[in-house]
Amino acid sequence: MTDTEPALSAVEQLRALAALLQDADTARRLIDEATLELTGRTVVHADQRLEPRRFVLRRHHDVSGISGPGDVADGVLWPDMTASIRWRGEHPSAVFWDRGRVSVELIHGHVGATTIEWLDDPQQPAAEQIPAPRSEPPLQLRRAIDIALTRPVPCPECERTTACRCANAPRTEGRISAILTAVRPWLRDAA
Q1: Among 54, 53, 52, 67, which Cα is nearest to 108's?
Q2: Taking 70 as the threshold, does the pLDDT of residue 124 lie above it?
Q3: Could you tell me if 149 and 37 are in contact, meaning their C-beta atoms sit under 8 angstroms apart?
Q4: What is the pLDDT of residue 68?
Q5: How far apart are CA 149 and CA 179, in angstroms?
Q6: Spatial CA neighbour of 84 closest among 69, 100, 71
Q7: What is the pLDDT of residues 1-22, one digit of tens each?
């Protein structure tokens, strides 16, 4: 890399290293698994036939006393497992949940007082029915990534590997670097 070329991000480096694998499906799956682990979001590729799935939030008992019972919001579970909700009523708003259905049920479910009611045909391919991988990555590589995912990552602000006061400091780049470090020797051997 020259001084005029921009530095690659950790994700771009991981993508470049994964491309060294002889099996393109394994490389793609590794990147997808790393993305899921780091962001909680499923990667949806252009060749996958996945459709968004519509739902309503049906409130059986109004715990807050604000919206009343009935269908209080319309939602979509996207193929990458994120969700968006548009609240009904006098003061509508939209909310997006990166952790999808889990967040919707945890925050708005009120222990069963509000439920998700699916509007689309259950036979329709839903975001929850993501096809299984065609082949598993080698066990040695899976172990290297597993170890990297549990290795302590220093805070980019204070360099601590334990909990710190820099609560909003993202450790994603450090986590990706740990994965790259763990995978790099294996890729050299496999190439």
Answers
A1: 67
A2: no
A3: yes
A4: 80
A5: 7
A6: 100
A7: 556 667 777 667 777 777 676 5
> Can you tell me the distance from the alpha carbon of 161 to that of 140, in angstroms, rounded to the nearest whole number?
26
Q: What does the alpha-carbon distance between residue 59 and residue 46 come to, in Å, rounded to a whole number?
A: 36
Q: What is the pLDDT of residues 28-74, one digit of tens each?
A: 777 788 777 777 678 888 888 888 889 998 888 877 777 788 899 99
Amino acid at the residue 151: R
- Token pair in block for residue 129: 């029915």
Q: Check: CB of residue 79 under 8 Å from CB of residue 129.
A: no
Three-state secondary-structure class, residue 8 = coil
Which of 118, 113, 137 has the alpha carbon at shortest distance from 128? 118
**Secondary structure in 3-state letters for 23-45:** CHHHHHHHHHHHHHHHHCCCCCC
- Measured at the alpha carbon of residue 141, what is the angle toward residues 11 and 150, in degrees to the nearest 5? 70
Give the angle 140-144-145 at the CA atoms, nearest 5°: 120
Cβ–Cβ < 8 Å for 158, 164: yes
